[in-house]
Amino acid sequence: MKRPLENLKVLDFCWVVAGPMTTGYLAEYGATVVRVESRRRPDPLTTSPPSRGKDGVRSGYYANYSANKYALGLNLGDPRAIAIVKRMVEWADLVSENFTPGTMERLGLGYDELRKIKPDLVMFSSSMLGRGGALSKLPGFGAVLSSLSGMTAITGWADGDPTNPYGAYTDFIAPRFGCAAMLAALDHRRRTGEGQHIDMSQLESALQFIAPLVLDYANNGREGRRTGNRHEAAAPHGAFPCKGEDRWVTITCMNDAQWLALRGALGDPAWMQEARFQTLLGRKHDEDELEARLAEITQSWEPEALMHALQAAGVPAGLVLSNKGVIEDPQLGHRGHFVYYDKPQIGRHPVQRSEFRLSKAEAAKNWPTPFIGEHTRHVCREILGMSEAEIDPLIADGVLEVPDAALLAGG
User: Fold this and answer.
1) Of 296, 325, 354, which residue sits at a domain end?
2) pLDDT tens-place string over residues 15-58
3) Counting Cβ atoms within 10 Å, is residue 9 exposed (0-12), middle (13-18) or buried (19+)?
4) Exposure string (b/e) for 80-113, b if CB count within 10 Å is 16 or more?
5) Which residues are the active-site residues?
6) 140 and 172: one domain?
7) Which domain range does residue 359 map to?
């Protein structure tokens, strides 16, 4: 089956999560993505858990984001490597990077320099705060952006400290905007012949996820606060304990009809019939007591049985799944969300595929995330037309990098 991006050629300098996830969409739908990395300064994810061993090549986190890409090992500290990059730019339609602003320029690989080589080049630059301004060169990761975007201030219990959302939360927001921006720029190039430089601020992308709170403050002067699992327009709204160790079901009543359905599904106990609980305002007023009494009921239920009973009654409810539960979830399994690869050192492991399905094209499953430099010889031979006599001295000098044979063999 033909894939929609199979003629697209990408030279990819992205690392960590936000960048590799963005270009991962392109590779999954047919683009030839050549990822540049060096063992001298490897992607921090290579040493990030979860891992099946002590060395970074076994990191499942790293393995999740660069399947289907070619790995070109290059020491960018050497001028000969910069010359190779410029040859690759002649080949590429798109160059992507998510370094701190100014890094590519210091290497002599900024957009103004690269478009001299390829005038219609599209370059995608993603950074924490975008280019320009007093803080544009502030280094950091998603946890910093969660704080700067205001998410940390509204996450946590009302009487507790601010809490970061899980992990580098904004890294999982930015790629959805980045991929759309790339495709729009490439479409513009196809129609006009004009290239462009995309400057994407991950902070500004993240703000889209708290837009209602931003607008509420801008228009009404109300500032968001930490409310735990609660919601101003729903009661109950939270996670409630069930039978078993650390088993929970989330329950939401957005209106009085859902509250009546909840009552019926739980046997309509006397306390739920009290007048004070029959309106949203009443339930919000006595929400502490409401949640405590509801928890007394739910903890006598098996979580799956409770979820199905509430859903059948028309009450929004869902299991709180563990990581194991997510991997084994039948709906995700039906959609093939996790694909499995075998790779030396890490063995069989799952990789998440894109969350959408196209009616006329399937996502690729070609090869797992490669080791640094795993395709160096292939890229130099097949894309740049270099001979082994040209490649070998550059490997010997550390300009080009290839993985050890023992690594590829699983030793």
Assistant:
1) 325
2) 999 999 999 999 999 999 999 999 999 999 998 888 887 666 78
3) middle
4) ebbebbbebbeebbbbbbbbebebbeebebbbee
5) 171
6) yes
7) 9-209+336-408
